[in-house]
């Protein structure tokens, strides 16, 4: 069965529909420094309205709630919206896409895209985001990315990337082609190193399985990937036979401001 949603890439629609129950389990949280970035660089706080665009099951959404801003979560995949609404009943959860936001003109102070902008990186999406932002409002782009400067992480990424097909990814850099964008300032960039600590099962195996295009694969193809991932864990001294491991990450945060 396919799960086609207009404006949503098939790997996201199919994978996240199948994997809504387990999507967030193996994914890292965000570094503490991000709270200051949201407050100082995106000017979020009480009295402000923030949109979590492509919110998924709400992994990032609590970071916005913690600012004290009113939060609207926009997500096209029904199964993901259901999980988010159940977990965060205080959040206004709406169906929508980056190309068709369920919001009025100049209605919000910030739009955040966490682990999502690469799926809809286009001039059309940016024009729609600009439409709903107040003058001087901010667009924030956030990605948690494994630190491939570590050799075993680079090997893990190679296993995953070999199966990406036509799925948009942060690492390709193609999302940058949407910039510079009319009506927005130049992108400002921040890097925040951190780690994801837990069992290898959770922070490596389950995290790989939660990747959209891997969730969309038939079970026998996932089994091949799992064998490769477990073989890598067994061969790496810093991972093998360890009850707790840390996967190094870098959070990349970008800001652009609506200008007239």
From TrEMBL:
Keywords: Methyltransferase, Transferase
Domain Methyltransferase type: 51-139
CDD domains cross-referenced by the UniProt entry: AdoMet_MTases
Gene Ontology molecular function terms on file: methyltransferase activity
GO biological process, one term: methylation
PANTHER family in alphabetical order: METHYLTRANSF_11 DOMAIN-CONTAINING PROTEIN, METHYLTRANSFERASE TYPE 11 DOMAIN-CONTAINING PROTEIN
Record's protein name: Class I SAM-dependent methyltransferase
Species the sequence originates in: Paraburkholderia sabiae
